[in-house]
């Protein structure tokens, strides 16, 4: 599915390539913050979508890239591509426009609203105002249990700057597990959104460990003069894919029995790439997978109540049994 980031990047590239005289690859790299290889991949994608790119000599060694002049339509709001979107593409674009983000209820609300208005103009130019109204009537933007980022805007901007400019950051972070504030020296590797919150991967200077951090739990953050050390063999997509929630570097093999009532819900999703499902004669099933995050798996299993029983690993099963016994005592004592 098209992401909002990719769409915005594509639109910005179109604007740059629509300039009279075009633009060099080096200038595109700086404007879009992409590698030379990524720029050429972008060129390939644009040509596959039917955008007529041309290159012209700029000086002895450099080429200027741009779109054919008669392909670009000038408008008061800027230059936009002539696109013909089908129903699926229109739906995807509308979902991007209507989707809420954790930043919306922060001080960045005005910036997000402005960006949405610009995207909607792009949408109207290509699909028509009537189509916008049709999708507005059939799609709802549901409010979520977003984590509060109000008052954290400056911290978020500092973390972004640290990642973009590859600078080491000094910050204070609230650890809920240890119930204390910790001062850490770290490099920001990348950001991602998960479960209505914004998180970042960082690499701590003290032990070179990669960790996931919730942006709203930073109490302070400031840039240092030190450049971030180069990070090798960092594949965030793989880390998140293998983790059950956000816990990385905590691997475990899991086997869970789900009742016949819960089995249809389990079968309709791919929970983990390594998962295997064994159907039972009574309609129940056994799910086995390799993931990361003991606490996360435990919470997930317990959320099914009597319809899920953890079979393996044995030590985590006993941990759940002990918690259920203690919980039963608490309930009995409260009556």
Automatic annotation (TrEMBL):
Q: Which residues form the signal peptide?
A: none
Source domain of life: Bacteria
- The record places domain WCX at 251-326
Q: Which PANTHER family has this protein been placed in?
A: PROTEIN PAFC, PTHR34580
This protein is called: WYL domain-containing protein
UniProt source species: Oceanispirochaeta crateris
């Amino acid at each position: 599915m098209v992401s909002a980031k990719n769409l915005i990047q594509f639109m910005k590239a179109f604007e740059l390539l629509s300039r009279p005289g075009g633009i060099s690859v080096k200038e595109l790299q700086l404007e879009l913050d992409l590698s030379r290889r990524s720029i050429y991949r972008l060129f390939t994608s644009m040509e596959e979508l039917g955008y007529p790119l041309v290159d012209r000599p700029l000086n002895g060694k450099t080429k200027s890239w741009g779109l054919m002049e008669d392909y670009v339509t000038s408008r008061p709001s800027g230059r936009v591509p002539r696109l013909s979107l089908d129903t699926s593409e229109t739906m995807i674009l509308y979902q991007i426009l209507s989707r809420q983000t954790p930043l919306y209820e922060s001080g960045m609300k005005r910036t997000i609203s402005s960006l949405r208005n610009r995207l909607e103009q792009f949408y109207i130019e290509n699909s028509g105002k009537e189509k916008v109204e049709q999708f507005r009537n059939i799609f709802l933007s549901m409010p979520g249990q977003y984590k509060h980022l109000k008052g954290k805007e400056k911290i978020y901007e500092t973390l972004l700057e640290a990642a973009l400019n590859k600078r080491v950051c000094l910050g204070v972070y609230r650890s809920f597990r240890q119930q204390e504030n910790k001062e850490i020296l770290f490099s920001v590797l990348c950001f991602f959104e998960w479960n209505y919150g914004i998180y970042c991967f960082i690499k701590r200077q003290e032990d070179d460990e990669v960790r996931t951090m919730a942006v709203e739990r930073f109490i302070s953050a400031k840039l240092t003069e030190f450049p971030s050390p180069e990070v090798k063999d960092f594949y965030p997509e793989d880390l998140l894919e293998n983790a059950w929630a956000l816990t990385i570097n905590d691997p475990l093999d899991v086997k869970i029995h789900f009742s016949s009532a819960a089995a249809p819900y389990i079968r309709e999703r791919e929970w983990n790439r390594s998962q295997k499902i064994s159907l039972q004669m009574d309609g129940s099933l056994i799910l086995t997978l390799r993931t990361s995050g003991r606490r996360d798996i435990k919470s997930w299993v317990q959320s099914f109540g009597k319809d899920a029983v953890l079979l393996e690993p044995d030590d985590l099963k006993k941990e759940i049994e002990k918690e259920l016994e203690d919980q039963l005592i608490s309930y009995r004592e409260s009556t």
